[in-house]
Write a structure and sequence with these properties.
The protein is an alpha/beta fold and about 425 residues long. The protein is built from 14 helices and 21 strands. The protein binds S-adenosyl-L-homocysteine (SAH), iron/sulfur cluster and FE3-S4 cluster.
């Protein structure tokens, strides 16, 4: 057998990119993964275009490989993901060192593209092909894996929020068929997975072909609830407009569905929400939270926020702070609005940078206060932890609670993949400490 070539993949952006990187590594037969770019025969950057900073990182990272490429003429450099989709041809022009560009919807064609690049030609594919990418990638190796895994069930987005590139980089909303997902889930469980996070840009808009017509996300979750050996189910990211009654109900009754929901709102002012084309109001979002808590009182809510969207006034921003006070977030992600060329909001009156910085600071102060409060309230309570890795101290294990808090347990006497009951004894900035019960 010829010696395996080495593949170095660097992943940016969302969890869907993490999943895609795994699929790309599996698609490139004859390669084994390496942790450093120095001994790689192929470097693949799986990129993110969501904010300007995220996209810039690609060019600075490519710059770093100039020397390596000069030393090793056989080294192939590829750009995948959302920057590849948005700026693929420009990358090829601006960066002669790039041999291969592949978009998020065509990476099942990587083997052909790699072969072409090996002959010294430039290989570019940023199409949205008709054929089923996942079907083509089905024959995956059966390697053992860690206790948690991502599983993409839905891709793309038809919502066109005025700030967002995703509908352009990932294409239209598509759901994978139910049997494909269940087969992949059972396969993951056989390989050691205990917790699956279902992924989609609008995962709760899932409507895949099932045994009898289209299935909702809730129905898919109930089917996964019956998979032996699977202990935990999560899903992300959801849109407030796609919250359905059967999903609230699943949060109340489905034993393996974890009490955590990431439900981005972006802003609390109805004027701004309208200009964002979010097609929900602050009130309708708050009703979603109310229904969730009615179904599952202890559910932990997470969200995304954008400050300094064009035309956002101090009053609009105050409405966002008010909404945060009402919801009480266990954790959240917040960003300064970043102008994305080609999106509607890019053409509007922009908020000054210093104002954005100030608002982000105040928003994050409030969110972090809430996070700390909620974490401190966990002390003395029992949670279950799925251990994902060993801690830094001997005998210490680290895992996640059902609420997705990172939990450290000293003298755990347990292995990776074990699910144990613990009592929370302390809370620090980004994690909890617990002891066995
Ligand atoms: N599909 C998900 C997440 C999309 S991207 C959803 O609809 O919620 C993840 C987050 O990035 C978004 O929720 C938003 O908060 C942020 N984001 C997207 N575009 C942005 C931009 N132009 N500037 C700043 N933040 C942005
Ligand atoms: Fe982007 Fe909006 Fe679609 Fe989310 S719902 S991916 S923020 S366009
Ligand atoms: Fe980024 Fe693309 Fe995900 S733009 S956030 S990698 S869908």
């Amino acid at each position: 057998m010829p010696m395996a070539r080495k593949l170095y993949i660097k992943t940016y952006g969302c969890q869907m990119n993490v999943y895609d990187s795994e699929r790309m590594a599996e698609a490139l037969e004859g390669y084994e993964q390496t942790e450093t770019p120095d001994d790689a025969d192929m470097i693949l950057l799986n990129t993110c275009h969501i904010r300007e900073k995220a996209a810039e990182k690609v060019y600075s990272e490519l710059g770093r490989y100039k020397g390596l490429k000069a030393e090793k003429p056989d080294l192939k450099i590829g750009v995948a993901g959302c920057v590849a989709q948005a700026e693929g041809e420009e990358i090829m022009r601006r960066q002669p060192m790039v041999d291969l560009v592949v978009g998020p919807q065509s990476y099942h064609r990587l083997p052909e593209l790699e072969a072409k690049a090996r002959t010294g030609k430039k290989a570019l594919d940023t199409e949205f092909p008709e054929e089923d990418k996942f079907e083509r990638l089905k024959n995956r190796p059966k390697a053992k894996r860690g206790p948690t895994a991502f599983l993409t069930v839905q891709e793309g987005c038809d919502k066109f929020c005025a700030f967002c590139v995703v509908p352009y980089t990932r294409g239209a909303e598509v759901s994978r068929p139910v049997d494909q997902i269940l087969t992949e889930a059972r396969d993951l469980v056989e390989r050691g997975v205990r917790e699956i996070t279902l992924l989609g840009q609008n995962v709760n808009a899932y409507h895949g072909a099932g045994t009898d017509g289209e299935w909702s996300l809730a129905r898919l979750i109930w089917a996964l609830n019956d998979v032996d050996g699977l202990e935990r189910i999560r899903f992300t990211t959801s849109h407030p407009n796609d919250m359905t009654d059967d999903l609230y109900d699943a949060h109340g009754r489905c034993e393996k569905l974890m009490p955590y929901l990431h439900l981005p709102v972006q802003a609390g002012s109805d004027k701004i929400l309208k200009r964002m084309n979010r097609s929900h109001t602050a009130e309708s979002y708050l009703r979603c939270i109310e229904k969730l808590r009615a179904a599952r009182p202890d559910i932990l809510i997470s969200g995304d926020f954008i400050v300094g969207f064009p035309e956002e006034t101090e009053e609009d921003f105050q409405a966002t702070l008010d909404l945060i006070r009402e919801v009480r977030y266990g954790t959240a992600y917040s960003f300064k609005y970043s102008t994305r060329p080609g999106t509607p909001a890019a053409e509007r009156d922009q908020v000054e940078e210093s104002v954005k910085t100030d608002r982000l600071y105040r928003l994050q102060a409030l969110l972090s206060e809430q996070q700390q409060e909620i974490q401190r309230a966990m002390v003395g309570k029992q949670v279950s932890v799925l251990f994902e890795r060993e801690g830094r101290l001997p005998g210490q294990m680290v895992g996640k609670s059902e609420y997705l808090h990172a939990v450290h347990v000293a003298d755990a006497g347990a292995a990776i993949g074990d699910l144990v009951r613990v009592e929370v004894i302390d809370s620090s900035t980004n994690s909890l400490a617990a002891k066995l019960v």
